[in-house]
Every structure is written in structure tokens, then in C-alpha cells.
Amino acid sequence: MKKLAFAAMIGMLSASAFAAQGDILARFRVINVDPATSWDNSGAVPGLSVDAKNATVPELDFTYMITNNIGAELILGTSRHKITTNKFGDVGKVSVLPPTLTLQYHFAPEATFRPYVGAGLNYTNFYNSGLSVAGVTNLSVDKNSFGPALQAGADIAINKNWFFNVDVKKLWVKTDVSADQLGGAKLGTLHVDPWVFGIGIGTKF
User: I need a labelling partner for 5 at 20 to 30 A (CA). Which of 26, 151, 165, 181 fits?
Assistant: First the structure.
């Protein structure tokens, strides 16, 4: 009986195996982008602090399995964040597009529970920024930022073709903030550095 139970357990663990070399895994997640903001105050307004609020948005990603254990994932999504300051209150919103590429290691590609870790690079584009101070001074942010990215998560098999996914990422993102009506004077550097928590569903093709 023990041998039969052990064989059945092994069969269950391997029945949903499909994360193999050459596969493309597609995941649709709902993510919460939670900025861990800090402010470099070496600018034109001493004592100024800036904060970016969190946002919940959809995200799509694709992983190409280079080997059974190693995959490359491209993460696509965009979020819009309210920006607040200690001196001027709410100053508007800015949209962020941070396509991120990570190289992953999948620990158990033939199991029902398939954890992975990853590391890579994010390129963040800031766009559609409507930032101003009291409607008088327009604020500008740099249009792009490069930074490292770390990732951990797991795929949990639902059946042969579908799986449940949980994922967390840490991105390092920063941008300079300047005031247009002060001759483009730099106010400081905003470090966004978000945690990105995701949950979703995936399949392969």
C-alpha cells in the first residue's frame, strides 16, 4: 500500500508537467504596484519630499523556456500614480511603462508546484505626466530610467494546459523632477523602487 501511495503521488506531481525546453508560457496577472519612494533633496527646493501612491492594474508576460529549468521572461504592463508632496500637496499624476526582462530559474518544471526566481533589467518610461504646483508651475520628469529587477514566484498546475500564478518583483526606478517655469531647474530625484505583487492565470503555446 505504501508503494502504491508513493507511486500515485509521483504520478500526480508529474502529470501536469509542461514547462519544458522550447515552451512559451503566457500569464495574465492583476498586479499591485507599491512604490517604496524616497527623495534625493539635492535640488532647488530644500526640505521638499515627494511620494508616489500605489496602483492596481493588469499585466501580461511571456516566458520562453531556454531549457527545462531556465527561462527568459518579458513583463509588459503600465500603471498611473498620484504624486503628492509635503509642501504643495497633490501635484497630479504620471503614467509609468516599465517593460522588464528577467532570466529565471525554474526549480521543478515537472511538478505540480513550480517555483522560480529571476533577475534582470527594467527600462521605465514616464509619460502622460500632468504635474503642476497650484496650476502655475509645470513639473517635468525624465522620460526613461534603467535599473535592476529581482523576481520570485510559482506556477501551480490546474490541469494539463492551465496554471495558477503568484509573483513578486522588486524594481529599481528613478527619475529627475524639474520645474519648467523655473528655467528647468532640478527639484530633486524621485526614487520609485516599487514592489510589484501579482496573482493570475497562465497557459502555454
Answer: 165
